[in-house]
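step: validate -> pass
step: tokenize input -> pass
step: predict -> running
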Amino acid sequence: MTGPHRIAVLAGDGIGPEVMAVTLPVLEKVGAACGLTFCFEEAPVGGAAIDATGKALPPETLAVCEASGAILFGSVGGPKWESLPPHEQPERAALLPLRKHFGLYANLRPAVCYRELVHASPLKAEMIPNGFDILCVRELTGGIYFGRPKETTPNERGGERAIDTLVYETHEIERVCHVAFRAARSRRRKVTLVDKANVLESSLLWRKVFKRIASDYSDVATEFIYVDNAAMQVLRNPNPFDVLLCENMFGDILSDELAAVAGSLGLLPSASLAEGTFGLYEPSGGSAPDIAGRGIANPIAQMLSAALMLRFSFGRDDAARMIEWGVTRAIQEGCRTADIAGPSPTTPPLSTREMGQAIASRLP
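step: predict -> pass
step: emit ->
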């Protein structure tokens, strides 16, 4: 028996607490089977933390995260806090500081459309008869979201001028390239760099560094694609892609597009990794305030995020595969929440809790 592994549990807002509540028992069951013990330390974040403390990321919550081996994150935000100044709103005031504080530079967004759920994708079934499996690797702490200066000033015509700068340095690109190439080696050995090298100087630097790093991975195929073409090809035929490597903003947009064509945001996890083993793991779908409190949210993305945590932060691929297998079996055997049930389900969709129990019961 190893551990205990300390996990900061930041359920957050909206459906976050609902899907987290059914994920932690699955983690405990997997831990018992694999000789792992966990210490879950819950702390407020996002809108819930604003209501409780006045800040989206209270110092106490940050301290819990610093004392943990990983962060299992739910979701933040909602209409209730949209009237706050932008820099005080839940996502900007919680997620961005966490990424910066812990140096979470690499965001892994697996986009999997299961063969049994092709009907849930907006793509035509004949385009993806067996579904698809793409990994989007997004650089997370550079680019236009973190560039300086950021300002809005009056201009000479009586309006305003806003400035954001897209800045990258060689080392920022190098480290995320290595993440993408290592990931490709465990998949289908192909990395596609998404850029806008016909326009942006920063993209030229990305290409230069990418080509140099690629020489260390001669067993991995490489290709380049402009971001606008990538967005179109994902809609036409996503299957040729394996690993998509993107700078921050391009990755933000394309990973959400991939989530949409996969069938449901409720299916897709993400991992935000730092140097070493620390990481933040969260569903891709957000707080979904329109369904919060109704008990119908899909918990799969949260559970698969926990699987990524087991793999990357705790080095237990065996435990991660248990969760992934339980999810796959549940889907194969017809377990469906409302978001993936299809237009004419033969049986009533499962609640969040029922889906959690269905997956737990199918763990190998």
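step: describe -> The CA atoms of residues 186 and 220 lie 10 Å apart.
step: cleanup -> pass
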